[in-house]
Amino acid sequence: MNPKTIITCAVTGGDDTGFRFPAVPVTPEQIANACLDARAAGAAIAHIHVRNPETGKASMELDLYRDVVERIRGSGSDVIINLTTGPGARFNPSDDEANTLGPGSNLRTPAERIRHIVALKPEICSLDLGSLNFAGMTLINVQRHVEVMAEEIRKLGVKPELEIFDTGHMALANHLAAKGMFGENPLFQFVLGVPWGAPATSETMALFKNLVPSGGNWAAFGIGRHEFPMLAQALVLGGHVRVGLEDNLYISKGTPAKSNAELVERAAQIVRLLGSEVATPDEARQILKLGTSA
Predict the structure, then answer these.
(1) CA–CA distance from 185 to each of 105, 227, 281 (Å)?
(2) What domains are there in the chain, each with its CATH number?
(3) How many CB atoms lie within 10 A of CB 288?
């Protein structure tokens, strides 16, 4: 077990939960405040998507990202900003016409998917490593697009957080890591319990953990009811952890979480009960070697 454990809080996500669940932040002000509250509760890293303030739906608008980031930076908070690059990969093929996008598709070029990373230069950004059946659609992340995005992210000095939804994603991540595309200290994030992805089990997490290359850091999280069991399992296996309303809307069975901060507080309790300490943002920067050439 790590003596210091990094807690990431994924505050809103891109699923259709905005306005349907009152605790989910929607506007830039709400999202920024959720990140600051999560930091006060013990999170070192805030993982950020943005939403259309009028509809609550997921958005890729640069101005919304800028608004959130400027609010956090303007507050003087030391929280580490982690912006998503996941949006822009949803593919829903038409049932009636060949080679045609159906409703809900939002395929974008690699340049469009990292436009906000180029403009805002967060310390970390997510990078999906493969394709996956997801919520009735498919997330499309072909190798050449992953490589283009990874190269641009590396040039910016931003650390990619490698999102691992399945075993093939881990294989590609290690292939690219061996080529030096992520530096000497790659950061892996194991996503467990997404339907048709890697299951939220101890065996799966142990498999992924054993595939992390020397010098790499890793974290893991479970979706929905798996959030806290997988958090405890990650701690025991020596990983870092993630919670947040992107992944799970409940503090306990049948009881909706009041806020992201409430989920972080519960995570911090578990970290301490199991014998680790909650890492501060500066300690997380040292652990992950942020701001270095590594």
Answers:
(1) 34, 26, 18
(2) 4-288 (3.20.20.70)
(3) 25
- Please name every residue paired with 80 in a beta bridge, in sequence order, or none if there are none: 45
Please give the model's pTM, rounded to 2 decimal places. Answer: 0.97
For the chain, the C-alpha Rg in angstroms (whole number) is 18
Give CA separation, 226 vs 127, 242, 250, 284, in Å: 23, 12, 11, 24
Q: In which element (H, E) is residue 242 found? A: strand 240-243
28 contacts: CB under 8 Å, gap ≥ 6: 50, 53, 64, 67, 68, 71
**Residue 110 C-alpha from the chain's centroid:** 18
Q: What does the pLDDT look like over 119-164, one tens digit per residue?
A: 999 999 999 999 999 888 999 999 999 999 999 999 999 999 999 9
Residues 6+ apart with CB under 8 A from 205: 190, 192, 220, 230, 233, 234, 237, 239
User: Of 156, 166, 80, whose CA–CA distance to 129 is shortest?
Assistant: 166
